[in-house]
Design goal:
Glutaredoxin, 2 domains, globular, Glutathione S-transferase Yfyf (Class Pi), Chain A, domain 2, single chain
Length: 214
């Protein structure tokens, strides 16, 4: 597909993950910046995403919302970038597993922690992540001593998991375990990750804001 790519984002949002993914893809894209509040809730943007939130991407006539879905879509739309195991390969299973583990249990556990929501031990079976300790131990087992989650190649799963670990540790919502820090440091050193962060940090500074925690 050769249609134009458009990123709808705010530099202090999950749109940072989508931008990193676009930089890894390496195709030209246009950025539509949206402020929180009226701009995101305006009728013209709700025609893109009825939820009135970012990020979203448009690829020709195709609109994709939800950050994990954006990453998965871009990996498949541009297979030449090598950001997902080949369709039909056995590596596709763990690739999906860790991509959506971060989108589900990890994000839910971190946000509940940030909001001060405590799940009673007798009710943990009702939440998808069980407990924060179980989430962290599972993640540590996946990344300890490894550069990548699946085989020997970077994928959209690494990007998405790494972004959540970096954000969570930066804001004190996830333990700074040595395995997490080593894994994130390797991913943060990628040229595409640095380009994406520099773009969004410059947008924040131009607006007079503070950079996200590192």
């Amino acid at each position: 597909m050769t249609h134009d790519l458009v990123l709808y984002t705010h530099p202090m949002s999950r749109g940072r993950i989508a931008r990193w993914m676009l930089e890894e893809v390496g195709r030209p894209y246009r950025t539509e910046l949206l402020g929180y509040g009226d701009a995101m809730k305006a009728a013209d943007y709700r025609a893109v995403n009825p939820m009135g939130k970012v990020p979203a991407i448009r690829h020709g006539d195709t609109v994709v919302t939800e950050t994990a879905a954006i990453c998965a879509y871009l990996a498949d739309a541009f297979p030449e970038a090598g950001l997902a195991p080949p369709s039909g390969s056995f590596d596709r299973g763990p690739y999906y597993r860790w991509l959506f583990f971060a989108a589900g249990p990890v994000e839910a556990a971190v946000l509940n922690t940030a909001l001060g929501v405590a799940v009673p031990p007798e009710r943990k079976g009702m939440v998808g992540y069980g407990s924060m300790a179980e989430v962290l131990d599972t993640l540590e087992g996946a990344v300890a001593g490894r550069r990548y989650l699946v085989g020997d190649a970077f994928s959209a799963a690494d990007l998405y998991v790494g972004a959540h670990l970096s954000w969570g540790m930066g804001f004190g919502l996830l333990e700074r375990r040595p395995a997490f820090e080593a894994y994130v440091a390797h991913l943060d050193a990628r040229p595409a990750a640095r380009r994406a962060a520099a773009i969004d940090d410059a947008l924040i500074e131009a607006a007079g804001g503070a950079k996200p925690a590192a």
